[in-house]
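Subgroup meeting minutes
Present: P.N., E.W., G.H.
Scribe: E.W.

1. P.N. recapped why we're keeping a running log of single-chain structure predictions: easier to compare across weeks, and new members can see raw inputs and outputs side by side.
2. G.H. added today's entry (261 aa).
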Amino acid sequence: MEIERLYIQKTDQDDERAIFRFWLQRKFNERCKKNARYSLRAFAKNLDIDPSSLSQILSGKRKLSKKIIHNICLKLSATPTDFQRFGLLKRESNLENYFQISLDKFSVISEWHHYAILELTFVSGFKSDPKWIAKKLSITVMEAKIAIERLLRLELLLPENGSLVKSSKHLTNDGTVNTSGAHKELQKQVINKALIAVDECPQEEKDITSITMAIDTANIEKAKILIQKFRRDLCELLEEGDQKAVYNLGIQLYPLSKTKE
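Output recorded in log:
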């Protein structure tokens, strides 16, 4: 795969067909998350499109007519706002570019494998091939391709010497919006991955423990600061030396007893 071919300049983001393609990618990803066995072939059958043609559409290799876009929108129950963004209805204002950036940021925050791909670039023997990435993270090749394209477009990944590199060593979410739908979705996915690790991960490769305590709730804010410092200090420790695998650290502090009657 040519890394440069996946890169889309921001000036192209107001293109209605590009916006439609990103929307279609999301629809496919949503179905894959609900059903691990859901395939591109099944999605193509639902849309009454040849699987190879759908693959070209999702990867941006095939341009679509307004009629085909309209038919796909009808099959996927697109909203009137969606029709407007895809140029199928008269626009009230030119908001496509703003919408696309916002949508991508939400997707990166709410899907765990975007973060995993960014960190995977530091692992010894990393390959920018979507098949290699998909195998390492146990996701589909299509999910890997879509995530790489999105990360490149947001410049969280950068093409360098025929490979991919993370644009910044450390990234953090805006702590002021940690109750947004995107953050909640990410938190659910991280906890679900931990539940899988309880059964499937060898004991020597994990540490899953907990502690139950009676506390003074006035100290919660201080606890959050300590947890943040602990996470970052532990991250700095574990990243020393030869990085061989991508791990996730999840810390859950929550009430078991009701704080309000």
